[in-house]
From TrEMBL:
This is Nuclear body protein SP140-like protein. GO terms for molecular function: DNA binding; DNA-binding transcription factor activity, RNA polymerase II-specific; translation regulator activity; zinc ion binding. The gene is LOC120034303. Keywords: Bromodomain, Metal-binding, Phosphoprotein, Zinc, Zinc-finger. Residues 1-109 form the HSR domain. Residues 547-598 form the Bromo domain. PANTHER family: NUCLEAR BODY PROTEIN SP140 (PTHR46386), NUCLEAR BODY PROTEIN SP140-LIKE PROTEIN (PTHR46386:SF1). Residues 144-154 have a biased composition (Basic residues). Residues 300-314 have a biased composition (Acidic residues). SUPFAM superfamilies: Bromodomain, FYVE/PHD zinc finger, SAND domain-like.
Amino acid sequence: MDPLAFLTDKQLLQFLRCSRTEMSCMLQPHTFLNQLRDHLLIPENMYKKLILIRSKELREKGVYQVLDWVEAKRPDSIKVFWNCVFRDHLLQQYPTLRLLRNRLLDGSFTFYEKLPEKVEKEEEEDTKKKASAEGEEEAEEKTGRKKRKPKKRSASAEEEQPSTSTQSTPSQKRKVQRLKYCSPFRKGEKADIWTWPIYKSQLPVTCGDKEGMLNRDKLAKGERCIVVQGRWFTPSGFEEFGGKKSHKNWKYSIRCRDTTLRELIQEGHLTSPDFKRRKSAQATKRALFPSNQSAGSITESEEDDGEEEEEEEEERQKREEGERGEQANTAGGESSTGVSHGVVKKCVFKVTCGAINGMLHKDRFASGSCGKSIRTELCWMTPVKFVTEGSALEDPSWKKDIQCDGKPLSVLIESKFLHIHSLLCKCKLCCSTVKDRHDEDNDDDCFICRSQGSVICCDKCPRSFHQRCHLPNVDDAILGDNRTWMCTFCVLGASQLWRYPKQITYQEALTCRISDHLLECQYLLLCLYKADEDNIFVTDPCINVRNYTSVIKTPVWLDRVVEKLQQNLYKTVQYFVSDVLLIFTNCATFNRDNAEFREMGERLKDLFEREFKSTFSIQLQHPAASNSQ
């Protein structure tokens, strides 16, 4: 991929303008000039004239004139110019070109600096005016005629006339008088101060009637980051200091001008401590499974964290609805990415390359090699890695070979749905640390409840879980351990062969002691929780469903099954299976006239029975034997 493709022609021209002097001082520039000549970037007569110069001073002046000519006469070929200048053989011969290339790509050269405007045209106009005036005087002397004297001006007119000691024209004079500080933004652009160079490290913020300075680096590290008259506050402490404690969400109550910190964090202008934690000791308030501790034992800080997460989940639920609709359409053989209409509404959509497929997440996408944005069944990949795994071509192109709705990924890029980050981008995806790259290997959302928060990352697969969403629940004592942690899905998959060296019958599986098969039961429950996206069978239906107890005499739900499993109330696998199947039997009985919910129950029942046979390695019965039973 061309590394200069991320820069505009205007930026490359500005870089040439600021680098002409350095390039003109290169020793023995003959190879450099030959390269420009080979690519038809300079005229033949200019090249021949310059190549014969022996004097060092004249040669440097000539090279400078050549570069000046390229900027003025070849602006449309500026990318061709830099591509041919940054060839390997030239970079090895000229250290100046190596330094320029590094400066361009590592971000040390900034394009937002506004250079002074040229005044060459005005000087030329002045010269023409003076020449015309002198010509008129000479003509008067020859003809003997004198030009009529102007009428005497008033005092006010004399005051407006510039002093005789200045040589500048009236237009130049007005320009000098109006010279003042200008922001790094062009006219018409929004002056967002959080992008100004002066606020690169600190940013003015307000909360209520209090004002302070926010340190960007301290915020990213999770430290006390807001200083007010020498006192340092955490964001929540500054929120309380500003009289907004009741809000309990500093991302909304703390603002920079009229923009909340939440918006700045979402747009990438600020970095806050990531909600994603690898074996973090923090717990979340929202949980699907009961815990041994009572509800009153949840700390106040956990409640605050839970409220923040709930607010974030509200926005995420909208995206999830689109994702579910897309998955449903994909299952029915229809595309829902909308590429054919030029509009893409999904943040997550299906992509394929050869024999493999995955889901591309827009919020993780940065470029072909930055940001692991494609999720397969086994891992997260960058687009380049994904196309390498799926394409059989010797030189695959991720923009062309990755397909979305039957069209190449370049369609999404051209429609500006996917934005390729610049090489100078300093975001977390483009300038990721070792820890960031390690975290990119796992999902940002909980695999079970599909919401964000402090999650535990499996070290063997891309899944992530809330502590209480995983079965068995993850204790805080395990979080501080640096040993490899594997989720129930991976543990069962790794032990399946030696746990069941031979197949058993369905009746033999039911008579097994539950204590010897907790892992299999926990896996089956996780599958049901994952499949029940709307949480229809999770909580007690007697609370929310009217007249439920009048129809169903023995109600049971998934949370209740988990509770009984944790309290060792099941003796054999048969009791566990009976309770799970009773959930779906009750659903069919209560929803005789509601086909939608009845079909939901049947779908989960089929999933449970299919996974049960696979998990316990149930041998397939002969049709004759099954009919005799």
